[in-house]
Inverse folding.
């Protein structure tokens, strides 16, 4: 049996008492469409994190392309190309079950981020695939997002993390490589060293 935790926040009243009221700017910055000033922001972004939910739980997935990552059709519609990946299609499976999605857009060097919530559907319309091709390679499909809410997130998280500050070149050596992680979780059924040796060339050859 789980021991009750007297320090756990278990109801909305306690949560709201802990934080107090949201500032006016925090409320008024949210709008139900892609305002022109927010559109400028989205069109400068080469990277976003896509959040989805489905029967097997939550999923977050990084998405990147030369800016703009998404194509803005109008103030209510975004197009996100589905590029070549690992074919797990976790996000796409979730969208089929639950169309609610969220996107968090980043612009390198800018500490604010932009949040878009909406409803998604998956399209293989030939005109959309052709429109979003890069280097002559079309996306597998296109996620069409109907915008419901948009607002920017303040800079504190990125300032605290120093995300855009010049990094220590030795930092990458303090975490396991992709190959090392694969070898560990598969009990060396996958040759991690070989995976790492081939990784850069493989990724370059299969970027699109």
């Amino acid at each position: 049996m789980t021991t009750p935790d007297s320090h756990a926040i278990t109801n909305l009243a306690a949560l709201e008492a802990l934080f107090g009221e949201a500032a006016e700017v925090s409320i008024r910055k949210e709008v139900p469409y892609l305002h022109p000033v927010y559109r400028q922001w989205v069109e400068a972004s080469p990277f976003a994190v896509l959040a989805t939910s489905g029967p097997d739980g939550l999923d977050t997935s990084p998405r990147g392309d030369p800016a703009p990552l998404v194509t803005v059709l109008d103030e209510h519609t975004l197009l996100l190309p589905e590029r070549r990946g690992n074919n797990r299609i976790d996000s796409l499976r979730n969208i089929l079950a639950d169309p609610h999605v969220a996107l968090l857009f980043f612009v390198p060097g800018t500490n604010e981020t932009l949040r878009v919530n909406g409803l998604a559907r998956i399209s293989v319309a030939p005109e959309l695939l052709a429109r979003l091709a890069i280097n002559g390679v079309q996306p597998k499909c296109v996620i069409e997002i109907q915008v419901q809410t948009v607002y920017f997130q303040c800079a504190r998280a990125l300032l605290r993390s120093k995300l855009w500050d010049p990094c220590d070149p030795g930092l990458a050596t303090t975490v396991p490589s992709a190959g090392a992680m694969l070898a560990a979780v598969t009990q060396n059924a996958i040759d991690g060293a070989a995976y790492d040796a081939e990784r850069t060339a493989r990724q370059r050859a299969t970027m699109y």
About this structure: The chain has two domains: 22-161, 171-205. Strands lie at 47-54, 57-64, 71-74, 77-82, 100-106, 113-123, 141-153. Helices lie at 12-19, 24-28, 36-43, 90-97, 126-131, 156-161, 178-185, 192-205.
